[in-house]
Amino acid sequence: MPADEPRSFEESFADIGARETYLETDHEDAVERVGQAFMDAGFGNPTGFSPSENIREHTGEELPPTRVIGIGNPHAGKIVAEETQGDAATLFPCNVAVQQVGEGTQRVYHVSLPKVLEQVGLAPDDPASSDAWQEALNIAGSGVEEAFETLNASEIAAADAPAPADD
């Protein structure tokens, strides 16, 4: 693809397993639905935080409402932890983010923790030839795929998602 052609989030960050979708609902409803979609797909929901609230609290600056939902699949997490000799723990849990990008429009996005670990050199030396690593990718990837399919099939899925604003 030529450099001057616009690329989607998923195209721009394919090497880290990027996924995104848009939902037409308020922020809190989107956060609840996203969390439930991932739990239904086999992930736990061990943690979450709001970077926008934290920044507002500490700096007084306003950002669009954003909630990071920590997700984890214990089966994939066990493999990743073993394969990285525990080094992946600094990045646990995996995350999915819900960010308000317009009135009543929420952007949901995720990157694959195992793919990020490959990019930063914390994965096994040759992840493509590690059966265990590929199993972790398959477990986590199928769950993420299922959660995004659920969100995209819901009545609040945006038909025509807006392009993210340039900052």
What can you see in these coordinates?
The chain is α+β, with helices and mostly antiparallel strands and 167 residues long. It has a single domain, classed as 2-Layer Sandwich (TATA-Binding Protein). Helix content is 40%, strand content 20%. It is built from six helices and five strands. It has helices at residues 9-12, 27-40, 51-59, 74-83, 113-119, 131-153, and strands spanning 19-24, 44-49, 66-72, 94-102, 105-110. The protein has a five-stranded antiparallel sheet with strand order 1-5-4-3-2. A hairpin with a 2-residue loop joins β4 (94-102) and β5 (105-110). α2 crosses α6 and α4 packs antiparallel against α6. The longest helix is centred in the C-terminal third of the chain and has 23 residues, at 131-153.
CATH architecture: 2-Layer Sandwich
Structural class: alpha+beta
Distance between the termini: 23 Å
Number of domains: 1
Provide mean pLDDT, rounded: 90
Question: What's the overall geometry?
Answer: globular
Tally of extended strands?
Answer: 5
Taken in chain order, the helices and strands follow as HEHEHEHEEHH
What's the CATH superfamily, by name? TT1751-like domain
The strand line-up of the biggest sheet is: 1-5-4-3-2
Query: What value does the Rg take, in angstroms?
Result: 16 Å
**Biggest β-sheet: count, sense, barrel?**
5 strands, antiparallel
Q: Estimate what percentage of residues fall within beta strands.
A: 15-25%
The top-level CATH class is Alpha Beta
What helical percentage do the residues reach? Answer: 40-55%
Tell me the CATH topology. Answer: TATA-Binding Protein
- Are there runs of 5+ residues with pLDDT below 50, and where? none
Domain DUF302: 52-111
Protein name: DUF302 domain-containing protein
Organism: Haloglomus irregulare
